[in-house]
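Input sequence (129 aa), recorded before submission:
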Amino acid sequence: MNGAGEGRSTDGAGGRSVAGGSDVEGLLRRALAPVEPPADLSARVRGRLQSIREVAAEELEGWELASMRDPRNWVRPAVAVLGGAAAGAGLLLLGRHQRRRSRSRGLLERAERTASDVASSARKIFESR
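Predicted structure, token format:
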């Protein structure tokens, strides 16, 4: 039997023929191929993080120490501090990632470099105060 359909079976769903799984592997390879993010994604994320940081700073500027005697008033300043800190950390990581993306070779190296950058930036911030 040397027919055209030899060694092939149908997948049952669409009637496509699958030769030893190579079509499935090709489909998976195409489906799982890396996708480049939009060119303006970094700028959009940076803008959102900056606006969060600014709103948090404005919230803390309007905060009155005298009103903090009542624990019910602690929520807004606490959320502002957490939001501002998270946005600042996100901006820091985004900036570090952009500067070093081309030089990074592996995931472990990237993680080590990011941790080192965060530590040095934190030292600079605390030394300046």
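Checked by second reader. DSSP finds four helices and two strands in the chain.
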